[in-house]
Each structure stands twice: as structure tokens, then as C-alpha cells.
Amino acid sequence: HLSSMRTPTAMIVGLVLCPCGLLLTLTGTLAPSWRQVSLIPNEPVDLILEQGLWDICSERQSSHDRHCSQADELGYFEELPVRVAQGLMPTSLVLTSLGLVVAALGVRCWQKEPQHLLAGIAGLVLLLPGLLSLAPASWYTHELWALPAPAGSTLVVGYSLVLSYLGSCLEILGGLALTLSFHHCCKER
């Protein structure tokens, strides 16, 4: 019969969401904008500092004059939430990549039957990096206003942090979708 030859919907969902999550998390990890600092006293009104995990950039909104590798005078990079994110975000990216390889082997669209057990294991493997990147993104957000910044400046969430959040959630949802493959293993037994 034909129904067994089709790739299960949950596997397709997992294989769509997880790479999207990986892309968003990668962008969030590399792009220097986990937090934006603006309206800094004694600085031009249109100056915005963007703080990421690896870099600090300053940009003048009027001229779009942008300079990265700014000096970290306040010890921003020494803060624990930043250090933890520097460790967990790349770890998450590596694990997601490995999970996607396992998922591709398990789903195997070019074969008649997907390997449900392998796809389910891939789902568990992909759940972990989703949680590993969600943890530092959540902690950083919680500590956003406590991390060092020039006194009297305005702090807001940067787009990199939002992308990291979204990516983590997509990886978790994709991983959960793939773990549904275990259901088939149980039915086959």
C-alpha cells in the first residue's frame, strides 16, 4: 500500500523547523546585537551601541557610520550570562548540526521506509541544543538591565537575542516532532 511509502508529516515538520532554527540561532549567535544601548549621556543623541556575544558595535543613526570592535570598558564580556552564552550557543549549533545529520539518515526520503527509531533519536538529539540555546537567551534577557551599561542610558533587547529565542523554539518544536517517530517503533513491535 502507498501510505507506508510517504514520509510521515511529523518527520517533515521536524526537518523543516530544525534547519530554520539552526539558521536563526547561528545568526543570533554571530550577529552583535543581543542588547542595544541608546541615549547615552554625554554622547551624540543618535549613537547606538550594539552588544553581542563576541563584539560591541557603535552606530550613528543619522550617518549610518558603524564601528565594531569597540573597547569593553565596563566589563560586559566578563559577566556570567554573557560568558555562559558564549559557551552554550556554539555548543548548541554543533549539536544541532549533528542532530540534523542523524535526522536525515533516519528520515531517508530516498528509501521506501523511514527509520523511525533513528528519526526519534534525532528528535531527542535536536531537543537538547534547542534547550541549550534557550537557556542562555532566557538568562541574558532576565539579566539584560543588570548587565553593565553607561549610567543613564536606555537598554532594549537586540534582534540577535530575538533570533536566538526563535531559533531555540523552532529547534525544540522540530525535535519534539521528530520524537513522535518513536510512536511508530512502538506500533511495529
Beta fraction: 5-15%
Radius of gyration: 21 Å
CATH class: Mainly Alpha
Give the CA-CA distance, first to last residue: 20 Å
* Main structural class: alpha+beta
Overall shape:
elongated
* Tally of domains: 1
> What integer is the average pLDDT?
91
Secondary structure: helix percent? 55-70%
Strand order of the largest sheet: 4-3-2-1-5
* Oligomerization category of the chains in this entry: single chain
CATH architecture: Up-down Bundle
**Helix/strand order, N-terminal first:** HEEEEHHEHH
Report the uncertain regions. none
CATH topology: Butyryl-CoA Dehydrogenase, subunit A, domain 3
Q: Report the count of strand segments.
A: 5
Give the biggest beta sheet: 5 strands, antiparallel
Keywords: Cell junction, Cell membrane, Membrane, Tight junction, Transmembrane, Transmembrane helix
GO cellular component, one term: plasma membrane
Organism: Anhinga rufa
GO molecular function: structural molecule activity
